[in-house]
Amino acid sequence: MIVVMNSSATEENVKNVENIITSAGLHVHLSKGEETTIIGIVGDKTRVNTETLQAADGVEKIIQVTESYKLANRKFHPANTVIKVGGKDTDAVTIGGDQFVIMGGPCAVESYEEVKSAAECVKKSGAGMLRGGAYKPRTSPYSFQGLEEEGLKILHRVSRETGLPVISEVTSEEALKTAIPYLDMVQVGTRNMQNFALLKAVGKCGLPVMLKRGMAATIDEWLNAAEYILSSGNENVVLCERGIRTYETSTRNTLDISAVPVIKTKSHLPIIVDPSHASGVRAYIAPLSKAAAACGADGLMIETHPDPAKALSDGPQSLTFDMFENLCKDLTPLLSLQGRRL
Amino acid sequence: MIVVMNSSATEENVKNVENIITSAGLHVHLSKGEETTIIGIVGDKTRVNTETLQAADGVEKIIQVTESYKLANRKFHPANTVIKVGGKDTDAVTIGGDQFVIMGGPCAVESYEEVKSAAECVKKSGAGMLRGGAYKPRTSPYSFQGLEEEGLKILHRVSRETGLPVISEVTSEEALKTAIPYLDMVQVGTRNMQNFALLKAVGKCGLPVMLKRGMAATIDEWLNAAEYILSSGNENVVLCERGIRTYETSTRNTLDISAVPVIKTKSHLPIIVDPSHASGVRAYIAPLSKAAAACGADGLMIETHPDPAKALSDGPQSLTFDMFENLCKDLTPLLSLQGRRL
Amino acid sequence: MIVVMNSSATEENVKNVENIITSAGLHVHLSKGEETTIIGIVGDKTRVNTETLQAADGVEKIIQVTESYKLANRKFHPANTVIKVGGKDTDAVTIGGDQFVIMGGPCAVESYEEVKSAAECVKKSGAGMLRGGAYKPRTSPYSFQGLEEEGLKILHRVSRETGLPVISEVTSEEALKTAIPYLDMVQVGTRNMQNFALLKAVGKCGLPVMLKRGMAATIDEWLNAAEYILSSGNENVVLCERGIRTYETSTRNTLDISAVPVIKTKSHLPIIVDPSHASGVRAYIAPLSKAAAACGADGLMIETHPDPAKALSDGPQSLTFDMFENLCKDLTPLLSLQGRRL
Amino acid sequence: MIVVMNSSATEENVKNVENIITSAGLHVHLSKGEETTIIGIVGDKTRVNTETLQAADGVEKIIQVTESYKLANRKFHPANTVIKVGGKDTDAVTIGGDQFVIMGGPCAVESYEEVKSAAECVKKSGAGMLRGGAYKPRTSPYSFQGLEEEGLKILHRVSRETGLPVISEVTSEEALKTAIPYLDMVQVGTRNMQNFALLKAVGKCGLPVMLKRGMAATIDEWLNAAEYILSSGNENVVLCERGIRTYETSTRNTLDISAVPVIKTKSHLPIIVDPSHASGVRAYIAPLSKAAAACGADGLMIETHPDPAKALSDGPQSLTFDMFENLCKDLTPLLSLQGRRL
């Protein structure tokens, strides 16, 4: 951490800042420039309060040099984390290793038949996991909110029939409690990325967690949100990039593809990409999936539906089963160039 | 709602879309242009599924013409909503009418003495309400998370001693349950604007609610979030603009001052402004407060602290008591130009 | 300037960075933390190349502590700059002092009658300057591009008839050459904020310049753009905030009202606000104008048109003459609270 | 084009809008809903003024259904445009066909030796074109601005010696005039994407043009900027995505990878990607280049430098020659999966 004094800071101001730091048991490195004095802080920064420093007279700004997340940080955990999902009542899947996991299924669970047919397509295509929404966070209170526990039951049944591990979103602590017995992995959605009560709860839920990036979250905030889960005792966290909010309107969100190499550099956690929500347009899903695979993502989350035109939610961004199968086929040689497989 | 067909849509595609609409009991207005066919939908749009239409063959896009929020919409409720806060164990305050309410107090509750001195400054300055954070949503799990119930007790005690109605943020349903007996108004923070479980819960809590705008929420999403509260039975919702996320870094967020006249046009709900969180810089709070008052906001939420340099949270954006008093003084003649008073 | 080394930087990496700095004649302050080594640079930073440092092995990042603009910087020029416009063939106007200058007139010049009637409204309302577009930068090549020199002649004639100094946008060096004899002030528009050839040219044109903020320019980039003009020899630069690009769509752009106090802190140059382009909606112009006046802006640029419904360009954001007069009337007591006048 | 009336629009308001439309020789399709009346316009929309309609009483909004760009639009030109560069004094390269063109070279031209060694690396790696900056648009007037004509001479000489066609940025009409004899292709940079005078000039310059996306330009604005060049008579336009401005700071800009499939859908023009400027970080260039190739881009622009740590401009985002060669090697099998070659 570095404290930059402003150009009109007095000797006394500098002394005061030094005192704040040393009285917290830390050391100071003073650097007097012609225009500015800079005070470096050496030692365990959690012992000093940034805001106190920032508010001290004569301080222009505080610059954070080291990240506030530790457990999610590659600096202290250089090897890739590989997460195992399922394996007891279903096939075992690993995320973050050689396997490239595609999570396929309908945006919202509507019926057993719908989920079953989607799961069969997923299985046949070689994709590893089943997804489906039972609790749907919707902008308007008047939109379809999901089948809730009924939906979870359907997902669970189809998962056990097909052997595909299953993931679904939970939107509250109560939903989480209901969902645990039915799922192999839980998802925290973009609107809840900073619902810290929920993050702490999934940190104790015993299942692997997929944490979607908030709509306008920085990568730093995202890794700090992961840190809430990790520091609550759950090491099995997968990140999911799903597009960020920008001024551009030709896609629903802007897929931040750079997040893949950035996360790979800063963290040891696996990262997958959701091109369905990122683009909102069916025609863009295949090219964006290939981009994600080519730049090192560990998997994809893709919506597929027997009849997208009849889907109750997010139809336009769902692939038909044919499209889904073709995409998996097209990805295979691309993945093998990187030593990976479906 | 308007369905725009793409230029290669066939007669059959158009017929299919017409069928989807009419089979939902709605009427169709067809408009064939040289490049595009446009299908207008007449009737109650909640009966038709937008996504189904969007996914139909030949459809280029769906354009929403009317807003999905109804209870928050000025079209169906032309008069301003005026909300009463406190009045039993405290002074009565009204938001949305002639009174311009300033909610003052520390970012985070630290001690009785701190809150008491802040409340005395608020009272003396003529500002109407006391604020203070007991549950603090913090980016990092290692930052100070608030005194929780202990903090609520301090706020309650000071509120009853000074007569100032008190507002505080709740970050979960559990926190809400704990908080209700201590507060006169509850706040839903920016990170929880789309925590729909929490919105529904505050919709049933019996207290007026202040709903902060999400960090990257559109005004439309914000009004839909308010609709969750209103449609759960709570009519007493105040909106709070607190800055949105943009690329600009000289302020912590970008205060979207236009949100004030936009909300006044689209909705009957009161809107206040939080210049402390919007700017993150003490020196900008007074000018932004005046801007808010001049363009028609119904109040302000401002952080004040006996010694900002010692505050445990958000020190740099807190006003000293002198600054707070001077600001209230400066606002008075500005407000009277608009027929308002503190 | 501070060089932050990454956690795996070797002694040799640090030595190398020190050498780069000292061989440029600068001094080094070394600060070794537990995780990171930080190297402060003391002396004239223009002598060292940031990119060279950034690219050196072991460097994590370079942090700029001081601003790159000098002439525009309040640190080296504490007093407000007050700029005189007109005064020979027209009334004299000052920007940045007690006078609050409103520049009114049509978006695009269409005819003598149109400009004359607008100018009469401007004059009668007490607003100080006439504006009008002769060169119109339009997104599509098929939109009306302005009357060019013909438009300048109309503006000039009306200016001299009414005594109002006149400002108009120039979109190229050629347009600038044509425009100089007709104008009292030239405007560089938002799309040309980083057209450095044009900035250098207006820096030598002999007239005061109004520099609009780029659509997605940071305040730092904006002040650096002003620095191009100042360092080419022209001290008379007025900044104009006109809204930035964000994800919000209920206004055309997002008026960054905080830019007013930020600029007042960082620079001595005057700043005015353009609520017409910022909002794109007539109903929001009056409240935003009051916000600008209340938070310390030095003036406004507002579009007004005899019959906005017939305007060839930007009709929806133009005020009628009645609205313009009423706004000027409403602003007067607000300005006098701040010791200013129209 | 669709006119949406607001809910309080009168019969007379609707009639008035109909008159505006029919008096321009167009036809009207009226659609009266319960809440809103919608007026569809049939015919050549360039004959009616959007702003006039928008400003008419009772109008809520105008919705554009068809794009304003025609020559750049795939609807009217379904086949991919393939552009030939060089071929007289250099090798011939094609952009938009089977060949995947990588433009490599230093950010800024510094010396003959530097450019020559970079060109040899480019040639040896199988990349098709040489790039280098002679006119550098820099945020600060005190940064290195480029060697200008001297730099162009170096580029030209190296191009002819190696047979690589050469591209360089022009920042003004004057620079363009100077540059034409030295170059095989000209580049319009991000800061000049809406410098319409320059766009018209390159539209008449006789060389193929690469048009970079503006820092905060929508895809629609970008295609309209291309339309300025096309409608000035130059059909040889290549688009270049180079990252857009967002709130995220871990990369310099946010590479909008979706722009590749979006442009491929909306336009017939080739699109290449610049991962160097998009990310600003050397380590992210290879993964982003693969992403671009995998999702259908027609080429890349990548900075390479003999000794990035000594480069005068943009060192940290330049690849070393080894990295450049390895990247080209890695891309080859990925491209062949798509039937393309370097």
General description of the model:
- The structure is a homotetramer of 342-residue chains.
- With 342 residues, the first copy, chain A, is α/β, with parallel strands linked by helices.
- The first copy, chain A, is elongated and about 75 Å long.
- In chain A, helix 6 (196-202) crosses helix 7 and helix 10 packs parallel to helix 11 (321-336).
- In chain A, the strands form 3 sheets. Chain A has an 8-stranded parallel beta sheet with strand order 13-12-11-10-9-8-7-14. The first copy, chain A, has a 4-stranded antiparallel beta sheet with strand order 2-3-1-4. A two-stranded antiparallel ribbon of chain A has the order 5-6.
- Helix content of chain A is 33%, strand content 18%.
- The mean pLDDT of chain A is 92.
- Chain A has 11 helices and 14 strands.
- In chain A, strand 9, helix 5 (173-179) and strand 10 (185-188) form a beta-alpha-beta unit.
- The interface between C and D is large, with 49 and 50 residues.
| Beta-strand proportion of chain A | 15-25%
Low-confidence stretches of chain A: none
C-alpha end-to-end distance of chain A: 43 Å
The largest sheet of chain A has its strands arranged as 13-12-11-10-9-8-7-14
Provide the succession of SSEs of chain A.
EHEEHEEEEHEHEHEHEHEHEHHEH
What form of chain A results from the Cα inertia axes?
A: elongated
Task: Give the largest chain-chain interface (CB within 8 Å).
Answer: C-D, 49 and 50 residues
Radius of gyration computed on alpha carbons of chain A: 23 Å
Strands of chain A, total number: 14
Main structural class of chain A: alpha/beta
Major β-sheet of chain A, in short? 8 strands, parallel
Helix content of chain A: 25-40%
Figure out the total of helices of chain A.
Answer: 11
Overall mean pLDDT of chain A stands at 92
Assembly category? homotetramer
